């Protein structure tokens, strides 16, 4: 099912509003409770706000029609926005790892675990709802921007869940004979969360870099596209293709002597690839 562009814009706006809410709550709660990991979560949400606004800007650029200055449109806006998002998230993870390591080496950090536990429950519920909403929008229209936004909130949800679990363990340890070790829980949770999820921005940057240079689609998507095209004509199964954001560029030169006229071929290919969430451009060199 095709998600109208105004609905995609609404999904990105809801993501931005949620990020603003969680950023404010996380930064205030982290400062009040003295928790680095909550501050990390709040800082990540603040970045999510800026990155969601970046996605909205990219969507506006991509949706603009071609003109004299940009005769082929502004296709690179999507992968460029995703690359910037990935680099910023990667930077946050690296800074957090350094900060938490310093805290470990200087005696840990005391946190009001009971209050942090309450904040964690509310935070996980809100992040999970936003992630679920964006995942549903992405299923309706699997665009690159919605995919990046969904991954962003997936990362935030799992980090928040890990933090909640950590604070639960910290509250138990604080009431045990090993209470003196509770001060190390906060930096250890931050190292675990940032270290585990550092692969998310790395994958975002890798995929965006590939699309900036009009690389072929991901193997699973490419296999599905080729299987669909083979149903139309076996010659199309090996046709060179490149993907830029939500745009697929297909070289159908092998079909130059086929029974299809170019206009008809484009129409048939687009019909065959319906439901992929892709805008298809077909080129042919005779």
What can you see in these coordinates?
This protein has helices spanning 5-33, 36-63, 77-105, 113-140, 144-174, 185-197, 199-212, 219-232, 262-272; strands spanning 241-244, 247-251, 279-283. By secondary structure, the chain is mostly helical. The protein has two domains: 5-212, Cation efflux protein transmembrane domain (Alpha-lytic protease prodomain-like); 219-283, Alpha-Beta Plaits. A three-stranded mixed β-sheet has the order 1-2-3. It is elongated. It starts with a helix and ends with a strand.
CA-based shape = elongated
Q: Uncertain spans, ≥5 residues at pLDDT below 50?
A: none
What name does the CATH topology of the largest domain carry?
Answer: Alpha-lytic protease prodomain-like
State mean pLDDT (0 to 100 scale). Answer: 79
User: What is the H level of CATH, i.e. the homologous superfamily of the largest domain?
Assistant: Cation efflux protein transmembrane domain
Strand content: under 5%
Number of domains: 2
Number of helices: 9
Instruction: Please provide the count of β strands.
Output: 3
Euclidean distance between termini CA atoms: 35 Å
CATH architecture of the largest domain: Up-down Bundle
CATH class of the largest domain: Mainly Alpha
Strand order of the largest sheet: 1-2-3
Largest sheet: 3 strands, mixed
Q: What is the structural class?
A: mainly alpha
